[in-house]
Amino acid sequence: MLVSLLIVLACSSSTPDVAEAPSPEVAAAKAPAGTIGGQPILPKPMVIGGIDNQAVEDNILKHREEIKACYTSQLAQTPGLRGKVLIKFSIDAEGKVSRSNTRSTSLRNEAVESCINEQVAKTTFPALKTGRVAIVQYPFVFPMP
Length: 145
Known about the structure:
With 145 residues, this protein is α+β, with helices and mostly antiparallel strands. The protein is 35% helix and 22% strand. It has one domain (35-142): Fusion Protein Consisting Of Minor Coat Protein, Glycine Rich Linker, Tola, And A His Tag, Chain: A, Domain 2, CATH 3.30.1150. The chain has five helices and four strands; from the N terminus they run ααβααββαβ. The protein has a four-stranded antiparallel β-sheet, covered by helices on one side. Helix 4 (64-75) packs antiparallel against helix 5 (110-122).
């Protein structure tokens, strides 16, 4: 009798059900493209490999207007659009971008993020001083100053 009573009490709860938070993998899988996630967005680029930070900065700045146009083209459809986008890209030994993708974002606008990746992919850099590949994580802040 006591066992039956404990089973009934265990199965019926007087407290409301609390939903468990989804695991990060499940949350990421359900999140639409362009949502925040990934690594923290640092204020300066991080470069690993045989190219110096200044060379990366200088060459990205050559495409500043095109990257800014990625943002302004979506501003009419999304007034108040603002945020940060962290782009991770690889530079091969010859200075060509071999891969570019959004690593993290608070902008949450897939069109802008895709456009930035396209512009970064078009950028050429000096040949690497050493090694076969350099990895760059570059933050973009919108609106741009």
